[in-house]
Amino acid sequence: MVATGTPSDTELISRALGGDATALDALVRRHYRTAFSIALAQTGSRADAEDACHDAFLRAAERLAECRDRERFAFWLGAIVRNRARNMVSRGILRRATPLEPQTVAAREDPARDAEVADLRGRLEAALTVLSATQREVVLLHDLDGWTHADIAAAIGTSEGMSRQHLFNARRRLREALGQNTSKEHEHE
Amino acid sequence: MNEEPVDLASLDPTRDASFAHRVSAIVREARVGQAPAVTDYLSSWTRPALAAAAVIAAMSAIPLLRRNPQPAGVTTAEILGVPPGLVAIARSSQPPGVTDLAEALGVEAGANHGR
After folding, report:
1. Domain boundaries in chain A?
2. A126 to chain B: nearest residue by CA?
3. Distance between CA atoms of residues A145 and B107, nearest Å
4. Residue A187: count of CB within 10 angstroms of its CB
5. How far is A131 from A43, CA to CA, in rounded Å?
6. Quick one: closest CA in A to B17, which residue?
7. Which of B12, B29, B30 has its CB closest to that of A33?
């Protein structure tokens, strides 16, 4: 996962524990997308996912010394994020913001392009609500964050076969919700 | 199987304009390796526990204070229903006679005589 020449998670964790803020910064940047994918899968809302990520990263930082298998930091962090997001859902402390938040979309030179991205994001977030939390987590980790089925299966406690099944169902339901023609996809199979 | 990925790139939080701000907020607030110690948990737990114990003690005292005090001069023997005559005999340094015992027990002396 880590490109050659860039410090490993193990090294970043050691440096962060030694008080190196830039190492912690790098660690957060590297794993934010993963954390966000897991949190979004659980909460179903972008704003709540961001809150869950924030809290989870702070908790992970506090307990960083307890991460024994540092090469598997992503899994350890993922468990913290998942717990935090589930707690937010069960305690009803969600903001439940509207799915579309144009102000969070990256500012670009082209306003038309910004609007297009915001529109697509809104439709995707709405479409994700038709999936189960597990389906959302699988499709987000796989299609947004590039995880393998082996890693997804280990993270959510299932088999690789079930991970593939969840992904297949999630993609089909997402495309239906987005109004995309799924018959074309079957022609490719 | 459907192997065509769904394009979820627009959901990528690292492409948000606010991403750098979010990361710096985490780094700024993080207390790396400073998880609360056991003593912190205990101290945070002890105060509410002591407060709860004080409330329970105060609540328990209310019915005790409201109960009518026992009348002065009532002896344990009276509470237990021991006849006053027997109490007087017990307090006396003299050995009781048959008549005294019979009176104390409310029995006629010599009632069985002649049977």
Report:
1. 1-97, 112-189
2. B11
3. 102
4. 7
5. 12
6. A106
7. B12
**Same domain, residue pair B82 and B100:** yes
Q: Are A137 and A162 in contact (CB under 8 A)?
A: no
Number of domains within chain B: 2
What is the ipTM score, two decimals? 0.82
What domain range includes position B87?
Answer: 76-105
Residues 26-65 of B with CB under 8 A from A: 26-27, 29-36
B interface test, pick of A15, A34, A57 with most B CB neighbours within 10 Å: A57
Per-residue pLDDT of chain A (189 residues; tens, 9 = 90+): 555 678 999 999 999 999 999 999 999 999 999 999 999 999 999 999 999 999 999 999 999 999 999 999 999 999 999 999 999 999 877 665 544 444 445 555 677 777 888 888 999 999 999 999 999 999 999 999 999 999 999 999 999 999 999 999 999 999 999 987 544 444 443
d(CA A159, CA A153): 5
Q: Which of A25, A142, A185 sits opposite B2 (nearest CB)?
A: A185
The answer, for A29 touching chain B at a CB cutoff of 8 Å, is yes
Q: CATH classification of A112-189 is 1.20.1090.10, yes or no? A: no
| Nearest CB partner across the interface for B8, out of A124, A175, A189 | A124
Residues A112 and A166: their CA atoms lie apart, in Å, by 35
